[in-house]
Amino acid sequence: QVDGKDEVHNIEFDRLVVATGAGPVLDSIPGAEDHAHAFYGLEDAFLVKEKLRELLSSELSSIKVVIIGAGFNGVELSSTIADVLGERGCVTLLSRDDGILKDSKPHNRRTAENSLRKLRVNVETKASVERIEEGSVVFKSESSEEESIQADLILCTAGTRTSGFPGLSKLPQNGRGQLQTTKTLQVKESPGIFALGDIAASTDFSSSTPSKATAQVALQQADYVAWNVYASIADEPALAYRYLDLGEMMSLGDHDASISALDSINLSGKAAVAFRRAVYLARMPTDLHRLRTTASFATRPLVSKANQSLTELLREMS
């Protein structure tokens, strides 16, 4: 049942694919909904872009930005913002763990640590955010003492919640609200319904490893779901989901990147930037997208540094 603009539509299905993903969570931190901004989707990227433009055009000699969460999103965002703000920037990255990128490849973690150091990003580890007030973030450090950081802009990249609709509550879920699936990514007890991406609680059939909430996982699951939907209709054998770890790529500001792929390729610096752009172009859905992206890369030297990095920021989110 779908609620349209003017009426409710009942849509019958033989097979259903649920890929509603997840969204940011702000209500877990007191004051976050009023004084912080989530950074998760394209609309968030546009908002951050506008906020940075306002701060750069202000008379502030020091622009203070606090980013909560030191996963991929938080580290890339910290690097980009520090690069954009330059000497005027004072960027702080808060991690609740004893370091950044807890689940990342060692090469990428080391490269990111070095890059953040060069960009003068202050990294606070074992920092538990207690509350967010207007213009400040209050957190407990390793010593369990409360500390406060002043901020002109507070961004939150930590925490997500699955996005669904009322009908999903009737399907088997885990404690995080994800749909429990079989090895063929069919929802348990509902063979006509498939789930993929952040909404699916799935495991790699070959290793029994729970799937991570990444775009790479969702893209690979989409291929399996597409075949298994067809197979269920055409009476063909279904495929058990197996994840192939192709590695990680991350942007670290405008002129740096890090790549760790296939357990043997480790790149950083300009080589990683070039390789990452080549992979990015290859993943574009159409030749028109590739042409536009190539033109964007080619004309970036003609654009101001702030706009370069902000354009990259938006490109990453889209």
Automatic annotation (TrEMBL):
GO biological process, one term: aerobic electron transport chain
A Pfam family that the UniProt record links to this protein: Pyr_redox_2
Domain of life: Eukaryota
Record-annotated membrane-spanning stretches: none
Cofactor(s) the record lists: FAD
Keywords associated with the record: FAD, Flavoprotein, Oxidoreductase
Species of origin: Rhodosorus marinus
GO molecular function: NAD(P)H dehydrogenase (quinone) activity
UniProt-listed PANTHER family: ALTERNATIVE NAD(P)H-UBIQUINONE OXIDOREDUCTASE C1, CHLOROPLASTIC_MITOCHONDRIAL, APOPTOSIS-INDUCING FACTOR 1
InterPro entries to which the protein is assigned, alphabetical: FAD/NAD-bd_sf, FAD/NAD-binding_dom, NADH-Q_oxidoreductase
Protein name: FAD/NAD(P)-binding domain-containing protein
Domain spans labelled FAD/NAD(P)-binding: 6-222
